[in-house]
């Protein structure tokens, strides 16, 4: 990963890609301007949906030239951290709600050589984050209940991001927003202090590997709206 900065970064979620064509889809979104690639891992237990595990993450790694941002919506997390690190994740985010020992989980992520991310569900407050700030590289604020793409943005999370931004101060911690990001909602979060914007349906809509230009137009629309709000 390159050095830390707070510029707006668009991270398309491959949850909205063609699952039979991950390699081509990833090359297409990067060619069209994606800054990071967001990989949603779901276990059918922590969230009511199943996606994929370490072998798939490892298989797509060679196609990613930017940053592989792995969002683990799984519980327990700890037994799988080394496998996702070995699969080539740059960032691994685990949920605050995934177990009682998130401090240990974050230690394990950094210990495995990855950047450590902490994901927070819409219903969770920031109390649990306070004592973790010096051991994380990213906070992922969920603006939908995790499990599915294409859900509606939850506006109550704007205040959470403002409060979080103040708590972070000068620490080199990214604020990532995940769920319901569009050119309409991105500026609300950019103004509140977010820098990494995950978008699935709003990036992939209208395009395909044969016709990737809409991916570029979608990414540029989200980025322009966010940057204008800064
Ligand atoms: C939701 C996932 C998101 C999701 C975002 O559980 O963590 O990354 O793919 O999808 P959209 O942008 O369609 O809300
Ligand atoms: Zn995600």
Kindly describe this structure.
It is a single chain. This protein has eight helices and eight strands. It is of the alpha/beta class and 230 residues long. The chain has a single domain, classed as Alpha-Beta Barrel (TIM Barrel), CATH 3.20.20.70. It has an eight-stranded parallel sheet. β3 (68-73), α3 and β4 (91-95) form a beta-alpha-beta unit. Bound molecules: D-xylitol-5-phosphate and zinc ion. Residues 13, 15-16, 38, 40, 71, 144, 146-151, 178-181, 198-202 line the site of D-xylitol-5-phosphate (DX5). The site of zinc ion has 6 residues, from β2. One of its GO terms (molecular function) is D-ribulose-phosphate 3-epimerase activity. Its cofactor is Zn(2+); Fe(2+); Mn(2+); a divalent metal cation.
Pick out its properties.
globular, 230 residues, cobalt, 8 strands, alpha/beta, binds D-xylitol-5-phosphate, binds zinc ion, isomerase, Ribul_P_3_epim-like, TIM Barrel, single chain, carbohydrate metabolism, Ribulose-phosphate 3-epimerase
